[in-house]
Amino acid sequence: MRTRLVAGAAAVVAVLLSACGSGETVAPTSSVPSAGGPSTETSTSTTLATGELPELQLVDLGLDLDQPIDLTARPGSTSLLVAERGGRIREAVAEGDGFRVGGPPVLDLTEQVGSTDGERGLLGIAVSPDGDQLYASYTEASAGDSRVDAYDLTGTDGTLRADPATRTELVAIEQPFANHNGGSLAVGPDGMLYAGFGDGGAANDPAGRAQDLSTQLGKLLRLDPTGRDDADGDGYPDDNPDLGGAPGIWSSGLRNPWRISFDPATGDLWIGDVGQDSVEEIDLLPADEGGGRGANLGWDLAEGDRPFEPGPTPVEGLVAPVHTYTREAGGCSVTGGVVYRGAAIPALDGTYLFGDLCDPTIRGLRPAGEGAFEPVDLGVEVDTLVSFGTGGDGEVYVVGLAGTVARLAPA
After folding, report:
1. If exposure means fewest CB atoms within 10 Å of the residue's CB, which of 43, 52, 91, 364 is most exposed?
2. Per residue in 119-170, pLDDT tens?
3. Alpha-carbon Rg of the chain, whole angstroms?
């Protein structure tokens, strides 16, 4: 039986929709740089998928939220932190067998965010490993430029607060257009903050920004908010790759990375990158091969597994996606997810969960050995899927922009 959650909103602004483009079918060369990736003391082995998947369900938390767009948890907390696109970060407090939305927002960035037109708004949140800082990625009100800020996070479950007076600006990027802002944040196994940004928008990457190392657009940045490994004080770790361009670049060649995450068991980095008009892609950057250090994901030389720009075959050294699907197969904008490492659904261990804004089906990539993955349909659906998140207990939650926040659970 297929379980589907549909929120009550009659219409939702479509985030991340791509403009038109085209391409032919030739795969780029796969080559992942191998030196100096994120350090991790966890195992680098991947659990193989075994047996049939159990019947699953989505348990709606019944939260009264306005366009929820991302979810995370403070380490060791029973609460969930949920970002609303308009700028508020709310605490979902565990109560009995469910959750309730707490009192005042943990942080209210409504004035700083301003417009949610197009693809703008509060786009991503994360929490530092020690739980003392809250990170927010958003487009600012005056011109829609990208910002990543850090705030001191205090209190206990039920009373979590981030003090606006403690704001520290970590990233400021001018945006030439209103779309392709990226906005996903993730803390790596090395304790550093990773931030994904799109190519600046419009269509077809008109200025070639994703391949231009002089700009942070179309890139994944690696930040050091604590200053622990930042001797020169520029906000970026001293051991970042020196690519001879803009500061902080960890990986390049991204179009609109909508959700990045790290596998908590392996340290592997996963990216869902929205396609132009033909191919959606999932990228895997293994920790034991550098974790994306200096990697080029290919846009706009390639769209997924197809060449995009006219001319010769794309340059060698591009990292090929681990999974692609076409628009003809349904969907319009990939929503990257997380690797399941919870206890409630053992058969899902090691499975990467993902979906699409326009296709309610939640899917997975199950490890099949020797670097291969088996795509599976999990039999559950949610409309306007924009994010996956993990609670303090390791269980996975899904977020639909139309209002759904639900836990993935055995039926």
Report:
1. 52
2. 999 999 999 999 999 999 999 999 999 999 999 999 999 999 999 999 999 9
3. 19
> What is the phi-psi region of residue 318: left when phi exceeds 0, alpha when psi lies from -120 to 50, beta otherwise?
beta
SS (H, E, C) the chain: CCEEECCCCCCCCCCCCCCCCCCCCCCCCCCCCCCCCCCCCCCCCCCCCCCCCCCEEEEECCCCCCCEEEEECCCCCCCEEEEECCCEEEEEEEECCEEEECCCCCEECHHHHCCCCCCCCEEEEEECCCCCEEEEEEECCCCCCEEEEEEEEECCCCCCEECHHHCEEEEEECCCCCCCCCCCEEECCCCCEEEECCCCCCCCCCCCHHHCCCCCCCCEEEECCCCCCCCCCCCCCCCCCCCCCCCCEEEECCCCEEEEEECCCCCCEEEEECCCCCEEEEEEECHHHCCCCCEECCCCCEECCEECCCCCCCCCCECCCCEEEEHHHCCCCEEEEEECCCCCCHHHCCCEEEEECCCCEEEEEEEEECCEEEEEEEEEEECCEEEEEECCCCCEEEEECCCCEEEEEEC
40 pLDDT band, cuts 50/70/90, is: very low
Give the model confidence (pLDDT) of 206-224 as tens digits.
Answer: 999 999 999 999 999 999 9
Identify the residue whose tokens are 């030389």: 301
- Which CATH superfamily does the domain covering 3-410 fall into? TolB, C-terminal domain (2.120.10.30)
Distances (CA, A) of 238 to 49, 169, 251: 38, 19, 16
